[in-house]
Structures are given as structure tokens and as C-alpha cells.
Design a protein that fits this description.
Structural class: alpha/beta
Shape: elongated
Largest sheet: 7 strands, mixed
Number of domains: 3
Radius of gyration: 29 Å
CATH class of the largest domain: Alpha Beta
Number of helices: 13
Distance between the termini: 92 Å
Order of helices and strands: EHEHEHEHHHEHEEHHEHEEEHEHEEH
Number of strands: 14
Strand order of the largest sheet: 6-7-5-8-9-11-10
CATH architecture of the largest domain: 3-Layer(aba) Sandwich
CATH topology of the largest domain: Rossmann fold
Helix content: 25-40%
Mean pLDDT: 80
Amino acid sequence: MFDRYESGEQAILVHVDLPAEVDREDLSELKLLVSSAGVETLGVVTASRASPSPKFFVGSGKAEEIAEQVKALNANIIIFNHALSPTQERNLEKVCECRVLDRTGLILDIFAQRARTHEGKLQVELAQLRHIATRLVRGWTHLERQKGGIGLRGPGETQLETDRRLIRGRIKNILRRLERVQKQREQGRRARKRAEVPTVSLVGYTNAGKSTLFNRLTASDVYAADQLFATLDPTLRRIDVDEVGPVILADTVGFIRHLPHDLVAAFKATLQETQEADLLLHVVDVADEQQQENIDQVAEVLAEIEADQVPQLLICNKIDKLAEATPRIDYDDDGKPQRVWLSAQSGAGTDLISQALQQLLGPSMHDMTLSLPPAMGKLRGVLYQLDAVLEEQLTEQGELALHVRIADIDWRRLLKQYQEQGKDLEAYIDRR
């Protein structure tokens, strides 16, 4: 057995071109991930295969080439731009005598670095334990079974079995604690629904500019950087939108191609903010050449977490990097906002989001004329308090003719209130 490295800071990257679209990865994205993890890239090994090799993922000759690169450049970790099986990792480590990390393990490591809150740390640990549980055979196959003393001789329990038992216990413990966190989040969501406060969730591909936009809209100082997964822990802030009132804006973790299933499962409580939202602001980096592929990947993850039915508004961000793009709102055939073009970095066009939210979340309004007898003067005062009266006239019959425009929620509340007093407000609507 060779010495195992606890962490790697100088890496050889391995990228394999595969014909199947489902297996294809982006080398430039791997470099961004490695940079975000704080690892220095010493060299890149590329290969082309019709399908992955069951033994090494790459061919045996390419595995030897990687081993030679490791020795020549004195690297202490190999990072694959693909998901490896435990067997493939183990075989590569034997040949290269160096720690091997796959794409999933790299993303998990970045998440572990970014987690700040107690909940975020629990979620990352859960994902890591589920990932490690399939790879426990590594490094322990040389150990014999434990033996007891006199009267206790026997096969005992292998180190591998001990580790599996400890991991199972830890996973159960974390799941119980995350369940409590989820209940607390649900209580908060129920309270917001009772208060009829809409929730808007920012979603998008990682590094699309969600946190920069969040800071711009809420005057917050959430950590934002030009790196993948700069935001991990969800942040909620209240903003005020004209004709809508208070709105809760949620900044969430960015998505990425082939987001590990363990992460999606672990971040269920966090991603539920997206599931329960009234509207999703899908932030897209329009300066990215792969913007359409990124949009498709986000759609895939939203479908996986059952949030694909939530209404979306596309936020075309980073227009400052395009030559002729200007801040604007694109509308669909029904006159509803479909896209908002802006730059979160410079602030150009960010005021248009409030306008779009007003049109998408604004309450349905009732426009009508009420003919009120003098005895209903108190209702007149209430309508003025709600700023619902557009025009007032005194009729020849001595009644007040009020032209009002009132939000549906306020009108329903008044109907219920006067109904309890035995009065039907709809009887006062002038139907002419």
C-alpha cells in the first residue's frame, strides 16, 4: 500500500471525449471547478474513446501516460472530468500511486469549502457520506478481521464493516437533524403564505451572477465572486414591490451539468425554497457561448426537484459584455414579461425587474362603480384608506357614486367583513 494524501493542491486533469451526449463534459468547466477548489493545474491529459473502459475509464496505455505525467510533474492528485466507479478509482490509484478524484468528488469538496451555516454543513456531510459509503473498500482490504481475547476468539468485525456501521449511524443522525430544519423552513413558508407574501427564487447555472443580482436588488452583502458555487447557503431577504407589497427574494445554490444525485438529495430542504416559490427568476449569462446548454441543464435539475411547473422569468444578465445589448423587457403574445435584459454588475436595467415583478405578481384588480347610501359612509372611509377611490360623485338620489379600483384580496376581505354584519356589498355595485 502507498501513502494516501489527505488533500491535493497540484493536479493533473484528465478529460475524455465521448461520443454520447449524456456522457460529454466540458474541459473549460473542469478548469473552473479546479480553480474554485483552490487547486493548481500542472497539466491536462486528454483522450478520445467510444465508451469508458470498465477498468481505468481510459485505456491502459493512457493510464500509464497519466502515471508518467504524475511522476514528471510531481503532482499529488489526479482529477477526472467524469464520474468514476469505485473500482476505476482504485485501479487508477494502484497504477499512478496518487490520489484520484472524480468530478463528483471535486464538486463535493467545493461544497464542503463553501458551506457556512450549520444546515449547509450538515447537507454537505450527508452528501459526502453517501458518496464515500460506496468507496469504503479502498485502503482497507489489507486489514485482517479483529480478534477478541480468551473466550472471544472468532471472526469479529472487519474494519470495513465497522466503518459502514458508523457511516450508517451518522447518516441517520444527520437526516433526523435535517428533518427538523425542514420542519422549521416549512413553518416559515406557511407563515408567509398566511400573510400572503409571495416568494421569488433566483435560480440558474453556477456563476451566472445570481448573488450579484441579489445584492443589487436587496442592498445586501452576500458573498459573490467570479467562481463556481460561490453561493451555497440559501439567503432570504424582503424587498418591496409597488402594487404588490412585500416580496421574499431567495438566493439559492447554482446548478451545474450532471449535478451529483447525492447533492440533490442532501439539499432537499434548501431546494424546497425553489419548489415552493411563486416565481423563479432564471438568471442566464448571455455572454456565455454555452448559454442554451446551461438553460437546458437548469431545466433538467428543476424537473428533477419537481420545480419545473413554477412560472419563470428569464433574466438575461451580463449585457455589459455584449456589444449592442440594451436594458429592456421582452413580452410574450399575452403581454406578460418573458425576459429582462440587464447587467447586475453595473446595475443597468435592474430597475426593470421591479416593473416585471409588478406585472407578474401584482394582484388582480376590480374596477367598478359603487352606489352607496349615506349610511355606508364608513365603507367610503375604508376605500379611501386603501387608496382605491378614483372618482366620487353625488347622485340626484343623494347616494355616493364611487368609481373604485381595488385589489382582489382587499375586496374579498371587505365582502367577508360586511357579510358577517348581514350586508351584501355586491348589491351596491352599479351594473349599468
